[in-house]
Amino acid sequence: MFVLKNAWSALTHHLWRTLSIVIVAALIASASLFGLAVRQANTAAHGTAYASQQVSAVIRPSAATMAKRNGADPAWTKNYLSWNDYTTYATAAQTAQLQFTYSFTESLPVRQSASFTAIPGSAKPDPKATGGELTLRSFYTKDAAAANDLGTYKIVAGKQLDYAGQDKTGVLVSQQVAARNKLKVGSELKVGDPSDAAKSYAFKVRGIYSYTGNAPKGYGSDAKLAKDNRENVLYSSYYAFGANGFESSTAKNWSVPDLNIMFQVSGVSDYNKFVKIVKAAKLPSTHTVSSPSLEAYNRKIAPLGSLNTKTDLLLYIAWIAGAVLLLALVGLAMRKRRDEISTALIVGVTKPRIGWQLMLEALLPTLLGLAIGMLAGGFGTKPLGTALLKGSDLGAGTINLNAGIIWKVLGLGLCACLALGIIASLRALLLRTGNLFEARKEATR
């Protein structure tokens, strides 16, 4: 009790120093909890979660090829892959015993009519050169719609496409196009054939959609050609596309459908295997294999990776700076204590007892700071992580604490507190008793 009373007296006598130790210890503990929680979430996102997801793979023109694209040149359709091309790649994958499922989209330009017009682009070429001012895109399944390279969309009026039925006329139109043409669900519209201006097709508005994200560069309001503005896209089921005769093996120029098959494989390792198989099957140099799902996933977790980079740096700074500050504060507390220690030894107090008092002077504030930091980090990590990731596609609670992190920080914190206590106790244990009565000026060093 005597030792504890003396330690408490020393701590309260130098209150600012004591509070500084508490604050520094608390900051280190809370920062450690949060930083390690962010690191764990980032490791999981880039590790098991990344490797185990279902991966979509598509074969599309490379960026270099797309940079040369001329939407007003019908010869561009020579860059389209045919069913025969895709069959070659699928057969090669099956031969290599790679399991996959598939879905696809088919697109082609269609012409506006007198009663149904598109949102104009900045360039206004002859429809004979572009195939039309609108784009008709069909989806084989809802998975193909979900992987739409123009962006995901939601239905704001009417119904979603019927992928399994036999609806020949149902299409989805954008809110902007619907407003421009004063269309509503059930309204009829006509579009013209991309190669034959005299031929038209009748459709009915099944639903009205709006996109849920920003448009890819060159496919929004910045589109030069009207058909490239994604707001001018009519979405249909594959049945409606084929039933109206757009699926043709003898088509030429812009009447050739742009076929995009999406392969679905199990995991990143299978995707990497698929890429090698397709390349070995003589993939044209104008095309490349990519994964919309992996790209979307990487975009999704990018904010977490960025946060982890920052918190990792701050974590090391907190550990190093915090350790230096605590050592300095404890060292400061041990300065000019020789007279006090010498007097205690003269009156019969043993070195171990004095060392225990000095250890308590270091332990009490660091343990209190550790406890406060653990509570602050425990209750604050999740809401702080949610706030810092606000606006990203990551859900709330992505950054969470678990027992492993808590016990790790607590264990290391207790060891650090004990180490500081031992360092403080050495001030008494290493004092040379043979010099107790030397000159006072030497005793105050």
From TrEMBL:
One of its GO terms (molecular function) is transmembrane transporter activity. GO terms for cellular component: plasma membrane. The chain crosses the membrane at residues 313-333, 354-379, 405-430. It is a multi-pass membrane protein. Keywords: Cell membrane, Membrane, Transmembrane, Transmembrane helix. It is found in: Cell membrane. InterPro entries: ABC3_permease_C, Macrolide_Exporter_MacB. Residues 314-428 form the ABC3 transporter permease C-terminal domain. Pfam families: FtsX. It comes from the Bacteria. PANTHER family: ABC TRANSPORTER PERMEASE PROTEIN, MEMBRANE COMPONENT OF TRANSPORTER-RELATED. This is ABC transporter permease. It comes from Bifidobacterium subtile.
